Every structure is written in C-alpha cells, then in structure tokens.
Amino acid sequence: MQQIDDAVILQKFADERTRDQAFSLLINKYQQKIYWHVRRLVINHDDADDLVQDAFIKVWKNLATFRNDSQLYTWIYRIATNECLTFLNKKKKQNNIPLDEVAYDLVDSLKEGSYFNGNQAELKLQQALLTLPEKQRLVFNMKYFDDLKYEEISQILGTSIGGLKASFHHAVKKIENFLLSID
C-alpha cells in the first residue's frame, strides 16, 4: 500500500467530511512506528498499547491546531514520548522508588512478557538499555531503532544536536561496557 503524504492527510483532516478518513490514514501510516518506539521505552506490551492509544487520542484532539512548523511524525513522536515519560515518572512516584529500580522492574517484565520473542542477544541489549539514564535511552532508541536523524530527534526532544550526539555516544559506550561485563 502506498504511503499517503502528510500534507494530504492534514488537508483531509481540515475538512469535516473527510476528517475520520484522514485520521485512519494517519493511524495506518504511523501506528506501528509509534508502537515500537513506545514499547522500547516502557517494555510491557499492554502499557505500550495503552500509551499509544493515549497518544493518538491527543493527536486527534490537537491535530486541527497543528502549526506545520515541524514534520507531522516528529510532532506525533513528541506526543508519544511525553506520554511515555509521564507514565514512567508516575510509575516511579507511585511505587516511591528511584528510576533505577523502575528499570529493574522493566527488565523483569521483559523476561516474563509473553510478547517478548527475542533471543538472548536482544534480551541483553534491552537489559543494557534499561541501565541508561532516561535521556540517553531515548536518544539511543530514536537513533538506533527508529533511524531518526539528529535534527528530527532535536525537534522531538527540544535538545541541541550537539547534546544529542554526546548522549548517543555515551549511551553506546555504556551499552558496550555492559555487554562486555556480562560475558
């Protein structure tokens, strides 16, 4: 199926008669990418499903006011990322535990999750990612898994490109050290 251009989706969304169709096109185009982005951050499939749904509800409510000063998918990624960060911070506060321990909970849920079908190498990589500080994990996921350019990540996270490059470099080194230490 050919991808519909974002400008066409926005044009259809602006027309009350084709708004539902436009939103269906938008979901078909971005839902899977957003799901995997969210899933890598929160690990748990059910949490990821809920957060993706919440993100798209926000997209629906705010798409009419989208100003076109960024690309549509970076705007959607930003909404989804903010949903994830809010969720993880609530989880941290709710359990009154440091973020490091939330990472341990996520590792446990990764191992026990019925939706995880990865091999041992993927499990080790995910464990390594969960040891990273939040920002480094976000940057690594967006760069490595989502193949976003630094300019796009900068728009999503509101951070300088130089800072993103440094975060990615530090993340790679920490992952490398983690993987070497467990062999």
Account of the 3D structure:
Keywords: DNA-binding, Sigma factor, Transcription, Transcription regulation. One of its GO terms (biological process) is DNA-templated transcription initiation. This is RNA polymerase sigma factor. This protein is mainly alpha-helical. The mean pLDDT is 87. It has two domains: 1-117, RNA polymerase sigma factor, region 2, helix turn helix motif (Rna Polymerase Sigma Factor, Chain: A, Orthogonal Bundle), CATH 1.10.1740; 119-183, Arc Repressor Mutant, subunit A. 26% of the residues are buried. It is built from nine helices and no strands. The termini are far apart. Helix 1 (6-14) crosses helix 2 (19-42) and helix 7 packs across helix 9. 77% of the residues lie in helices and 0% in strands. The protein has helices at residues 6-14, 19-42, 45-62, 72-95, 99-112, 120-130, 134-145, 150-157, 161-181. The longest helix has 24 residues, at 19-42.
Task: List the SSEs and their pairings.
Layout: H1 6-14, H2 19-42, H3 45-62, H4 72-95, H5 99-112, H6 120-130, H7 134-145, H8 150-157, H9 161-181
For the record, the CATH class of the largest domain is Mainly Alpha
CATH architecture of the largest domain: Orthogonal Bundle
Give average pLDDT, whole number. 87
Count of distinct structural domains: 2
| Helix-residue proportion | over 70%
Taking pLDDT < 50 over at least 5 consecutive residues as the criterion, the unreliable ranges are: none
Whole-angstrom Rg = 17 Å
C-alpha end-to-end distance: 44 Å
Q: Main beta sheet: strand number and arrangement?
A: none
Secondary-structure element pattern, one letter each: HHHHHHHHH
Named CATH topology of the largest domain: Rna Polymerase Sigma Factor, Chain: A
Shape: globular
What is the CATH homologous superfamily assignment of the largest domain? Answer: RNA polymerase sigma factor, region 2, helix turn helix motif
Fraction of residues in β-strands = under 5%
Give the count of helical stretches. Answer: 9
Count of distinct strands: 0
The secondary structure category is: mainly alpha
